[in-house]
Amino acid sequence: MHELSIAQALVEQVEGAAAKEHAIRVVRVVIAVGTLSGVDPEALRSLFPLVAEETVAAGAELFIEQVATRVRCLACGLEAQTDAAFVGCTACGSRDVELSAGRELNIKSIELEVDER
Ligand SMILES: [Zn+2]
Description:
Strand content: 35-45%
Distance between the termini: 41 Å
Strand order of the largest sheet: 2-1-6
CATH architecture of the domain at 2-69 and 102-114: 2-Layer Sandwich
Structural class: alpha+beta
Bound molecules: zinc ion
């Protein structure tokens, strides 16, 4: 399952960050998921706690920021939010557009609890 390997990679990254900061617990993980990334946020949300079990990330809250697809027109410079069926610029009709957001799948922030003693 696609989301399972993503959840595993996510937990690995979180574990790495926690180890670097000598954290005893991961409180919260914020990730950005683009609408075109092909990831089902709900599936990821339910798999994360299972994968995180018995790691430093166990019990961490996963917050998913969904990023809408945006395209930028290379002809007139218009940047607009769109859906996956987008084929051309809504302002000038040019098909010379580039995707500026929507494929994201990355960690935005990790909140750690560090043992101060
Ligand atoms: Zn345009």
